[in-house]
Prior knowledge:
Elements: H1 14-39, H2 44-66, H3 73-99, H4 102-108, H5 112-123, H6 130-154, H7 169-196, H8 198-219, H9 226-252, H10 255-258, H11 265-277, H12 283-300
Helix pairs in contact: 1-3, 1-9, 1-11, 2-3, 2-8, 2-9, 3-7, 3-8, 4-11, 5-7, 6-12, 7-8, 7-9, 8-9
Amino acid sequence: MPSPTALDAAPASLPRAIRDAVLxxxxxxxxxxxxxxxxxxxxxxxxxxxxxxxxxxxxxAVVAWTRPRVPTLETLRINFVRGLLVVATGLSxxxxxxxxxxxxxxxxxxLAPGFMALxxxxxxxxxxxxxxxxxxxxxFAGMLVIVFGQESLSRGFSxxxxxxxxxxxxxVAAGLAAAVFYALxxxxxxxxxxxxxxxxxxxxxxxxxALVLAGPAVYVWEPLTGDLALLFCLVGxxxxxxxxxxxxxFRSAEAARIAPIDYTALVWAAALGLVLFGEVPGxxxxxxxxxxxxxxxxxxxR
Length: 302
């Protein structure tokens, strides 16, 4: 267990930031798989509320242990705005998860790194280098192969190249919206992490969305079984752990350098989709994954 000050320590080196990002993405991918299981039994609004409510309990333990400084009014105001973006991201992405296979829903989220680099340049005035741009372009091409290759290739000369999945239009639209909201939310992490601290950011990231969604969740509420309660305990723990690691990574490196690491989520999603849902990725998905991983390697190679 790290020391109480470890999570808010001085910025680490780029390799450590990359390691934190990869592990954080892995934990969040596990959370996505658990959420997909929950959407089969509960409305998306209730699932989204429970994801943040259980996460708020998990981060409360971290807050009690690390005892970060009391947030200022400015911190509360800015993180409340970010909380609204997190709510929009959760509702959009969980809708996509409920309507699309796990790997394909994850692939749509890979538009987010491109938006992150763009928003990082526009909002934070970060310089986007040639290596980061090349990595984003490679990863974006892989995403296109996955999303649009499934149906079009199944109609062409190589039917076996695609998985034959016809993507639900509403699921695709929700996934694209989630990518935009997620990118904005993560760029705000970069803008505030050095000021507010990692634990404070993640705590408010769970508290504010839970409060915002509490009212809407009441109107669609379905009773929780014991199994679902345990599932959301897992969701909360994985979500908090993943966001702590990602926030620390964004605190240590520029958004454009960390953004392509999101592409490794497809590896996790494909494995979890196969094990938990029997979803077998087609060759289009695997080919796109190869491009995505290549982009991540280009971005992180020293």
